[in-house]
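Note on ligand handling. Small-molecule inputs were canonicalized before submission; formal charges were left as drawn, and no protonation-state enumeration was performed. Where a ligand contained multiple stereocentres, the stereochemistry in the source SMILES was retained. For zinc ion, this procedure yielded the string shown in the input block below.
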Amino acid sequence: MWPNVIGEERVKQILKNALASGKLPGAYLFSGPEGTGKDAMAIEFAKAINCTSPHANGLEACDECASCSAIANFASPAVMFVHALPKSSDRDDAELKEEDVAIVREQRAMKAADPYFHIEIPRAQAIHVGQIRELRLSLARSIAGAKRRVVILGEAHRMNTQSQNAFLKTLEEPHADTLIILTSSNPNALLPTVRSRTQDVRFDVLSNVEIAEALRERESLPEDQSNFLARLAAGNYSRARGMIGEDVRAMRSEIVQFLRMGLSKSRKNAAVEIDKFLPRSGGSRFLEKRQAVEQRLLLLTLWLRDALALSTGSEDEIINQDQVEDLQKFVSRFGEPKSIIAAIGCVDRAMHRTKLQLQLRGVMLELVVELESALL
Ligand SMILES: [Zn+2]
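Structure output:
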C-alpha cells in the first residue's frame, strides 16, 4: 500500500486505520530521522484523503484523478505546504525578494517531482510568524471541492518561538475540515504546548535493503551501485538519492586526500584540495557548493567511522571495504579510538556550520585546524 512511500509499513498501518475509522485527529506530528519520507508520507496521506476515485476501500490514492495530480504538483488549493523561507526585512509580512522567489519556486518544483527531495533555501532560517499569520488567514477562508484541507509544515521545528506561539492558536481553533501535519527531524525543538496538541507518529530509520531496493526500482540503478549508495546513505533515502550520478569514489579520494594534507601540517596543500571541489570563484551556485561540501563531509565521517571500527576490532562493520589498506595505514598512525571519536565530532560540527553559513571555504579550513588538534 502507498507504493510512493518507501517502507515505513507500521506508520502506513497507523494512518490507514485512522482513515478507515473516519476519526482523524486535528494535528499529527510526523517525527523521525531525516530522509525517512515524512513529507512523502504526508503528501501521500493528503492524496488518499482527497482522492476522487480511491482504491482499496478508499484508503489508497488513485494517483490519476485531478485531485491526486494537483496535490502531487503542489497545485491543489486543498493542500498547503509550508516551509522555512528567507526573511527579506524585519517586517513580518514583507514580500520575498525577486531572486529568492525564483529559488523557492525551483526548490518546490524539485520537491513536487521527488517528495524525498530536501528543500534547502539559502538564508531560510525559520518559518516566520508572518507565514503563520498568513496560514491562519487562509484557513479562515473556505475552499470549494476538497474533502479535507491538509496543511503540511515541513521541518516544523524551524518555527521560531514567536511562530510556534502564533501557531498554537491555529492548533487550538478547531477546523473540522482541516488536518494539520507537522513533520520534524528534531521534535524536541517544538514547544511542549505545541507537541501536546498533536498526535505523534514516529518514523523508523530505513534499512539498507529498503534503500537499495528503492534505488533499483525508482532510479533503475544497477544492483552493485544501489547497494554501495544504500550503505553510504545510513538510513537516509534523500541522501542516497542525492548521490546518484555523482562519482562517489572520486569524491571519497578527494576528501581522504584533504584529510592527509591537513594532517601533514601542510595547510596550504589542504587549501589546494579544498579548491578542487570548492572553486574559490566561478559561477557555481551556493546550494551546489554546499551540497558538494556536505557530501564530502559525510564521506569523511563514514571513512573515520570505518577507521574507528578497524581500531576497535570490528572489521565487519566497515562500509568502505575497498579502502581497508588505506584505513589500516591511517589507524596505525592515528589509531587511538578516542582521537578518532574526537575527529568525528569535528566533522559533525563542520557539517552543522555548513548548514548555517555561507563561508564554506572557511568552514573547511577551520576543520583542518580542529582535526589536527584532535588527531595529532
Ligand atoms: Zn486520485
